[in-house]
Amino acid sequence: MMVRNMKFFKFLTNIGFCMVLFFAVETFHEALPDHIYVEMGDTLSYDFRVPVTVTMKENAKEALVNQNPKGMRKDSEPSYYVTCKLFGIFPVKDIEVTLVEEEAVFAGGTQVGIYAKTKGILVIGMGEVQNADGTEISPAKNLIKKGDYIVSVNGTPVKEKEELAEAINENGGKTEIIGLFRNEEFIEVAVNPVQTKEDKYMLGIWVRDDMAGIGTITFYRNDQSYGALGHPVNDGDTGEMLKLKEGSLYMTSIIGVKRGESGNPGELSGIIHYGKENYIGTIEKNTEIGIYGILDGNLSKLKQGTFCKVGHKQDIKIGEASILSAYSGELKEYQVEIESLNYSGTEVNKGILLKVTDKELLDETGGIVQGMSGSPILQDGEIIGAVTHVLVNDPTRGYGIFIENMLEY
Asked: Domain 105-114+210-406's class?
């Protein structure tokens, strides 16, 4: 009987060990990055704060021998893989290592006005139209959807909401063939507009063809290319990333700060100064990790940022850091504390968790506020990331993106 009990106990112990091992491997798998950049000639070291050992795979020596500097993040750059093993025994994950040249960029920190035209006319909502006898009708219901981009009416391209309204009225009460993009797919729908008491024809939709807001330049290079925000420009009504046709950056003046409070994020209020003399640059891409373009305008009013070496995620330390911002009119560093790092890449804009510790910034803004997105995060003289989000229930804390992710564009 005792022998049987011992075998059963041993069986349970083995099952328990296997379960613990499984969960440990899964946990550490998420804690390790899929991809890292290492500067050519650096001593290769890896410390991801988990108990794993790292060994190079077969192609590593060849990649190291054939180091061929050709600039940052090119397809031709040598790469190899390393294997991470739990306790040096159990394989957890393979990490791709790309060898890159040392890079330095100008840290931004200046708030700018963002103006862009959408790629098509964005539908932001649906509504009812009151016809001539007072009946309320929704002519586009179940045909046109929030988030659609209207690009044509009866085969004729329309680019602005005024053109859309004019085209609808010109055709009178006849069926309109509306061409639109939905989830990247072009489709056409037939809609019967409603004639109102004012003798106008309407589809019962709310639309937008442009946007304006305030954000922060994260970095720029000697060739005047830049990256900003660290997250996409989203539509406030649909919550989705805007498809932008073209856009520009302009000088802006911050005229007020709404302090952040728990449950109520703060924001910077500003005036965008349009016009040729205040034009700063183009917006050429709106991506999941920020907006990009060229600073080809009047840069005399743009505050010169510090020229900083790029720091990679495996070199970031938990502890003291700073964010760079010119919201007060002066480009200054404000102290923050890096609390944790998320290497998994599941939320690319939330790799860095930080807490504002700077008394001046806390007194004036309550922490991180809207309009600070893109503010560079600095540590040990290197640019390591950009502020992207504030925690709604705690405005003193927020997230940042690793700068190496933003530099991939």
From this structure: mainly beta
